[in-house]
Amino acid sequence: MKTEPKVSIHPDAGLLAASVAARLVTRLVDIQNERGTATVVLTGGTLGIGALRAVAESPALSAVDWSTVDFWWGDERFLPAGHQDRNVVQARTALLDQIGVSAERVHEFGASDSFSTEDEAAADYASRLQQAADKEATAGTPLADPRLPKFDILLLGVGPDAHIASLFPEMAGIRTKGQTVVGVRDAPKPPPERVSLTLEAINSAEEVWLGVAGQDKAGAVGLALAGAGAVQVPAAGARGRRKTLWLIDQEAASQLPGRLIDAGESDAG
Ligand SMILES: O=C1O[C@H](COP(=O)(O)O)[C@@H](O)[C@H](O)[C@H]1O
C-alpha cells in the first residue's frame, strides 16, 4: 500500500515548525486514544529539530502522555556518544530532556565509541528493531513489515540535494534492498559516516511527514513532487502506507508544479 503525497504550504519556516509541532501533538493524542501507545521516528536537520523545539514550547505539550511514546530515528551521524552533531543529542536538548520520556523507549543508534564501524551500528539497530517487532507481533499488533515495529509517524527532513535520512542521491544506501538499516560511508554532507533506515523501512510507516523550508530546497521539492525517481531524488521515494504529507514553506514551494500551489492541503498525485 502506498499513498499519494499531499502538500501543505506555510508562510515561513517558523510557522511551519509550529504547524508540524501542533500536528504531531494532535496526532499523538489521537493514536494514544486508539491504542494506548504511539511510535514516532524522528529526524535530524534544521526543521526536524526546530519542530521538536516547537513541541517543547507548545501549550498542548502535556496533552500527550510522553511516557508511552517510543522514539526511533530515521538516521544518525556516526559520531561519539554526546557529540553535538548527533541527531539524538540535538533531539534531547530540543525536547526529550524536558518531557517525561521513558529511557527504555528512546531507541538511539549506536555511537562510534561503542561500535567499530557504521555497518556494525546498523546491524545492531536492525536487530533492536527486529526485537521490538517480535514483541509487538506477540502482543497481536499487525505489522506492515515483520522486521519492524509499527511506526505511526515517521518524520523526514529533505536536503538541498533531495536526500532523506542519510540516503543520498545515486549512492549505495538509497539502492539498498532486503535490509532495514544501512551503514553509510562517503556521505556528501558531513560527517561522511552515518547510519540510516533504508527506503523500504521508511515506507513501512503508517504516516510519512516530510518537513522542508527554504529556497535552497525548492528544486528538490519540485523534482520530488513532479514524480522523479527515488535513486536520483530520494525524497520522491518516501511514501507512508496511510499518508504521505509534505509540510513546506513558501520558499520551498517556489518550484512546485503549478497545480499544487493552491492554498490548503492539496493532492500531489
Ligand atoms: O544530515 C541530515 O540532514 C537531513 C536534512 O537536514 P536539513 O538541515 O537540510 O534540514 C536530515 O533530515 C537528517 O536527519 C540529517 O542527518
From TrEMBL:
Alphabetically ordered keywords of this record: Hydrolase
Superkingdom of origin organism: Bacteria
The EC number(s) this enzyme carries: 3.1.1.31
DNA damage keyword on record: no
All copies of domain Glucosamine/galactosamine-6-phosphate isomerase, residue ranges: 12-246
Recorded catalytic activity of this chain's protein: 6-phospho-D-glucono-1,5-lactone + H2O = 6-phospho-D-gluconate + H(+)
Gene Ontology MF term list: 6-phosphogluconolactonase activity
Matches recorded under Gene3D superfamilies: 3.40.50.1360
Pfam families associated with the record: Glucosamine_iso (PF01182)
Enzyme class: hydrolase
Pathway this chain belongs to: Carbohydrate degradation; pentose phosphate pathway; D-ribulose 5-phosphate from D-glucose 6-phosphate (oxidative stage): step 2/3
InterPro entries found in the cross-reference section: 6-phosphogluconolactonase_DevB, 6PGL, Glc/Gal-6P_isomerase, NagB/RpiA_transferase-like
Described function: Hydrolysis of 6-phosphogluconolactone to 6-phosphogluconate.
Family: Belongs to the glucosamine/galactosamine-6-phosphate isomerase family. 6-phosphogluconolactonase subfamily.
Protein name: 6-phosphogluconolactonase
Organism classification: Bacteria, Bacillati, Actinomycetota, Actinomycetes, Micrococcales
